[in-house]
Amino acid sequence: MSSNENNDKNIIWHDHHVCKEERSRLKEQKPCVLWFTGLSGSGKSTIANAVEAKLLQKKKHTYLLDGDNIRLGLNKGLSFSDIDRKENIRRIGEVSKLFVDAGIIVLSAFISPFKEDRERVHNLLKKGEFIEVYVDTPIEVCEKRDPKGLYQKAKKGEITNFTGVSSAYEAPSKADIHLKTDVMSVEECVDSIINYLMKKGYL
Amino acid sequence: MSSNENNDKNIIWHDHHVCKEERSRLKEQKPCVLWFTGLSGSGKSTIANAVEAKLLQKKKHTYLLDGDNIRLGLNKGLSFSDIDRKENIRRIGEVSKLFVDAGIIVLSAFISPFKEDRERVHNLLKKGEFIEVYVDTPIEVCEKRDPKGLYQKAKKGEITNFTGVSSAYEAPSKADIHLKTDVMSVEECVDSIINYLMKKGYL
Question: Which member of A67, B39, B79, B92 has the lowest number of beta carbons within 10 Å of its beta carbon?
Fold first, then answer.
């Protein structure tokens, strides 16, 4: 970043800036972040993908942030240290904010185990723009689902800092949407989120 | 980032992923990055804002990245060191790529003085997704425009690493769009960009 990068925003011949409201109006929706949090294997990505597909059917404008597009790109080079894990979630939060500013409904699917980190993202956004979705799946179910046997490896100590095994998961105490996946199907989880968005006027 | 953040993308009960083509089709446009480069005060932000307003009139879906929304957010904490300046442009490139993946036409307005950094962003994107826009304004004109007297301060040595004064500006040798603002009005610059986008099938 150059020391003069930031000055031309003040030049007097600036005129019309397109704003969040205009971008959202074009999309006929109220932008927000659906912040999925839950254990590895809890179903965050599956549910988020299904919600995105449903929103596309409704001609809504979305974007899904997950390990696939973040880990090898923007957050490449971050380690698993405490500081870097914090920075990982901070950047995802800042990018979510940019997408909300662009009028998009963002779906963010990361374990994001720590309350403090989630709270920080919440505070970046305006009232009503952050929707916490707790994908609440018993760890035994997550372990069974895990196709790579990561839980097994974690238990043997072959993987360190594994959430739920060797690192804490701080469950949300007041999630906006609480999905108990042991008694709800994926379809029911999706409906629950879509109903929430409709009831609250996002769609 | 947790060591198990990345595994659930492979779980077998994943089904439909909404893709770039679907998001773009909904928006009736071909996403791309308009990468504005030029000296401080050259008119990057002014032209980019005017292009965004014009695209909104045409019901196109855009997002503008500039000092206002990047410097105090995602790239907060980066210094003016060589490494951090590189990292600044890298992150802007990665975020641009995410927006393109979301189907958006991105306008990025940063001095971005070094060819190598711009080339790296170019290489992040698919063919045709990166459009280099050289805002070519004589430095004397930039100096006159500058309302904060930053060029004066740079000449006195009060600001260091100031592009065009104490740090190099490497002009593009083959920009996709070359705007000679000493002989073109803002309107003509905007028209030139819109015509390019139409001719090449982005709109």
Answer: B79
Alpha-carbon B194 to chain mean position:
16
Task: Compute the distance between CA of residue B191 and CA of residue B194 in angstroms, rounded to an integer.
Answer: 5
- Residue B6 pLDDT exceeds 70: no
Residue B170 forms contact with A (CB below 8 Å):
no
DSSP string, B12-48: TT------HHHHHHHHTS--EEEEEE--TTSSHHHHH
Q: Are A186 and A50 in contact (CB under 8 A)?
A: yes
Q: Please determine, for the modelled complex, whether the ipTM score is greater than 0.95.
A: no
Whether B182 contacts B141, CB under 8 Å: yes
CB pair distance less than 8 Å for B56 and A97 = no
Provide the annotated active-site residues of A.
112
Q: What is the DSSP string of A46-109?
A: HHHHHHHHHHHHTT--EEEE-HHHIIIIITTT--SSHHHHHHHHHHHHHHHHHHHHTT-EEEEE
Most confident of A75-84, B15-24, B50-59: B50-59
The residue among A91, A12, A8, A102 whose CA lies nearest residue B37 is A8
Closest partner residue to A78 among B1, B46, B68, by Cβ?
A: B1
Contacts of A64 (CB under 8 A, 6+ apart): A48, A49, A52, A106, A107, A108, A109, B18
Q: Please, what sign has the CA dihedral across residues A161, A164, A167, A172?
A: positive
Summarised one tens digit per residue, pLDDT across range A62-78 is 999 998 899 889 999 89
State yes or no: pLDDT of A186 exceeds 90.
yes
Separation between Cα atoms, residue B155 and residue B178, nearest integer Å: 28
Answer positive or negative: Cα dihedral of A122, A123, A124, A130.
positive
pTM: 0.91
Choose among A65, A113, A199: nearest CA to B97.
A65
Tokens of B17: 């992923």
Measured between beta carbons, the chain A residues lying within 8 angstroms of B67 are 5-6, 8-9
Q: Are B121 and B34 in contact (CB under 8 A)?
A: no
Q: Which residue has the higher pLDDT, B11 or A110?
A: A110
Place of tokens 């996709």: B176
The pLDDT assigned to B39 comes to 96
